[in-house]
Amino acid sequence: MSRDKAQAADKAQAADKAHAPAAPDEEAEETETPRSGGGFGQQMPARKAKNFRASAVRLAGLIRPEMGWMAVVVAFIIVSVVLSVIAPKIMGRAMDIIFAGVIGKQMPAGVTKDQVIAGLRAQGQNNFADMLSAMNLVPGQGIDFNELTFIIAVILVMYSVASLFMWAQGFILNRVVMRVVYGLRREVEEKLNRLPLGYFDTRQRGDLLSRVTNDVDNVQQALQQAFSQLLSSILQVLGIIVMMFIVSWELALIALVALPLSALVTGVIGARSQKLFQAQWRDTGILNGHIEESFSGHELAILFGRREEMVDGFDRKNEELYKASFGAQFVSGMMFPIMNWISYLAYVGIAVVGGLRVAGGQMTLGDATAFIQYSRQFTQPLGQIAGMANMLQSGVASAERVFELLDADEQEPETATSHLPAVTDGHVDFEHVTFSYSEDKPLIEDLSLTAEPGQTVAIVGPTGAGKTTLVNLVMRFYEIQSGRILLDGVDIRDLSRAELRSKVGMVLQDAWLFGGTIYDNIRYGNLDATEEEVMAAAKATYVDRFVRSLPDGYQTVIDEEGTNIAAGEKQLITIARAFVSNPSLLILDEATSSVDTRTELLVQKAMAALRTDRTSFVIAHRLSTIRDADTILVMENGRIVEQGQHGDLLERGGAYHRLYMSQFAGGIDFEAEEAAASAGAAPRT
């Protein structure tokens, strides 16, 4: 796309003071991280930050104003984890009471525990005697239901309080994160309004939208889930390890043997699956692009007999996606079975050794039961730590991209020292203007021109000549390096951008309409316009002619893509929107290129009626648009090489004549079209 075209597309945002919706594009250097569960239901590989530490510290700085509440969150997590970790140990005590009651009931009453143990040893039952020695039982006495009820009540209270504290920390953290993200979104929005047009010219629109939406959402998700779950999982792992060593350090060592094996499996399979998932989503993007292209170009493919090639291309890309998806799912699916197998190995070892220690009286059955429960709980937080670490890494990477946007150079601050008169004529003067997008590539050098009030100034020239740049400078989308641009004798750099642009009406090649009624789209040019003014603008621009034929008239709702009205009708509405703003200066950048010749003639007649006391800058390639201009400027390499009217420039045989012969000479019968338009044919495209 040429520079003029690209600038015109981006300029539509600023001219209409709104953001046009755009589909996110793929970024060239970075891969977007789809959220887990999207499309195929798996966790996507995390995107890595360029400078993780600095970005993480800055992200933490966003939470600094909420540090008081964050301390409460951490305290609640600690209390919840401590209670939930201690509970199995106390539950083991309940198991000991039940087991001791069952065994004690089977023993004769009236003897002591030591007498029973001595009798067992005398009979050669040393193992049973050792086991009884570790138990707290009374021969002849059954289960102590009072103590058992008390312990069960304590356990229930502990789990209830732990759940309550976990819910409370989630509630507080959610409120804190929402306030932080709310402030971040507001800061991003304010930053976007302070960025110069040059920033948008040098960035992919999809990448910018991704930073504003997806990346901010990813930051929110990381703060909301990763912080709480990561801290909770780490504390659970530490707490479980401590409790396992308290219960039995020998069994704890057996349980910890599984850690290196788990880490090895996670590292090997995780790295392999990450590459396969990246390939899967790359192939998904390729296939989606092919499908979109097939649908959008379906008629063209049929016309040229390329339907079979399109189907074959789909089959090849679908096969590649199948292989990548199968490999990714198969490899990632191996993770849990292998981890479970390792967990079962540790479980078997713990059960065997624990059983021997219980039988030998070295630990109670309750402690063995508690330890088995700890060993089963141990792998869950480990898996959560790995998952949350990926989420946190992705969140910090997204935060880094948002911070890059927030750190971008802003447009020059306002230095308004003057104001335009209440009534402006639209007299524009360029005095020795010099401008370039980069210092090493000069574009406009020492340009001077004058546009008198009411004149129509047409600007023509080859691609890259600086046509759109010229009107960009008038609108102060870019700041000139030297010289002056005067509007009614006032240097535009001494005006506020809002005051300057309020005097300018702009219509671009790409007609942009927002979702809403036709009436609202026209009135968008001047929210203070009365209904009579809106209708007058609609009639003057021939919008009224086709709106009257619609079932809902001016209340017809335009969808987001504007597909329910014709392209020429969309352009007429944008012209009406510019006219209702009652500008002193009109800028039309290829404004009629998307309409048919008959509609174009109607637009020209409307423009002629509204051109009184207004200066018009027209950038166009169609001869029908520029042949009646008061002045035609021919630009090459940022310079005005010819200036004059259509007939005079043709007679000179110079640059304009060459352009005319190469681009403008056509076989259109303008007189016939104008006669048809005057006969009242409704413009439809």
UniProtKB/TrEMBL annotation:
ABC transmembrane type-1 domain sequence ranges: 71-394
Intracellular or extracellular location(s): Cell membrane
GO molecular function: ATP binding
Domain ABC transporter: 428-662
Record carries keyword Membrane: yes
Transmembrane segments annotated in the record for this chain: 68-87, 148-168, 230-247, 253-271, 341-360
PROSITE patterns, alphabetized: ABC_TM1F, ABC_TRANSPORTER_1, ABC_TRANSPORTER_2
Compositionally biased intervals (Basic and acidic residues): 1-19
Record SUPFAM superfamilies: ABC transporter transmembrane region, P-loop containing nucleoside triphosphate hydrolases
Spans annotated as Disordered: 1-47
UniProt-listed Pfam families: ABC_membrane, ABC_tran
Key words, A-Z: ATP-binding, Membrane, Nucleotide-binding, Transmembrane, Transmembrane helix
UniProt cross-references to InterPro entries, sorted A to Z: AAA+_ATPase, ABC1_TM_dom, ABC1_TM_sf, ABC_transporter-like_ATP-bd, ABC_transporter-like_CS, P-loop_NTPase, Type_1_exporter
Gene3D superfamilies the UniProt entry points to: ABC transporter type 1, transmembrane domain, P-loop containing nucleotide triphosphate hydrolases
Descriptive protein name: ABC transporter ATP-binding protein
Highest classification ranks of the organism: Bacteria, Bacillati, Actinomycetota, Actinomycetes, Micrococcales
